[in-house]
Design a protein that fits this description.
Shape: globular
Helix content: over 70%
CATH topology: Na+/H+ antiporter like fold
Largest sheet: none
Structural class: mainly alpha
Number of strands: 0
Number of helices: 16
Radius of gyration: 21 Å
Number of domains: 1
Length: 301
Amino acid sequence: MSTDTHSSDLIKVVSLLGAAVVMVPIFRRIGLGSVLGYLTAGLIIGPFGLAWFSDSHAILPIAELGVVMFLFVIGLEMRPKHLWSLRGDIFGLGSLQIAVCTMLLTLVGLAFGFSTKVAFIGGAGFVLTSTAIVMQLLGERGDIALPRGQKMVSILLFEDLLIVPLLALVAFLAPETIASAESSKLLEVAIAAGSIAAVVAAGVWLLNPLFRLLALAKAREVMTAAALLVVLGTALLMQISGLSMAMGAFLAGVLLAESAFRHQIEADIEPFRGLLLGLFFIGVGMTLDLSLVTSNAPMLL
């Protein structure tokens, strides 16, 4: 029985890798990018396709670490001074995008007969973009360092910052029985702000001395472990605080962008990042229910 179980698990791993190896090159060849290739691979082998996997959510918690590491690597490429220079785009373009798109999507909800509160909450939710998908597409096109790419990154950062305030707004708009249970949302906003301050303080005064000390040990695996500890630890702190793990990892990367060990840290993280990010997109593809999409096609269009 144990041998059969191990064989079954190995078959699933092989099917994951095989689907990615087949679909991603095809989609890149026809100019649609690797993201659609991964999503299609997940759709084919998932419960709504060939059903080789019955529980599509099983791999997502692990696969999400790929998004975290990807944003950490992006953060390593952005020095704090450069990020500060983007503050106008982050808060200006970001708030403009959120406001305009939320208003337009709320009108769509009202047109389909939803109440004002439901239409607004749905519109605000749909405004939030998948950071992983957009950043991956920008990376493949080589647009991240270009002005238009930097503007897109700024908007994504603002959206990540807006998650907790939006959750608090949802609590205020909810029925009284639910709103009373969610009355601590303002406290969560304060906790989130405190967590960001703690990460910044640790990055300024602790991270560089830590890596300098570890470098003296001349143990490459210890440096890799420390890099993973920084990424995952920061992501965990942000998640506990109600913010996105990706934003925490990005912030940690920015704080290490001036470090003398930046290139070594990036080289250590890169193999984990690429593999887990692909696994994340496959996991998302597994959750796509095409029958649900077709039944709501008018609203989606």
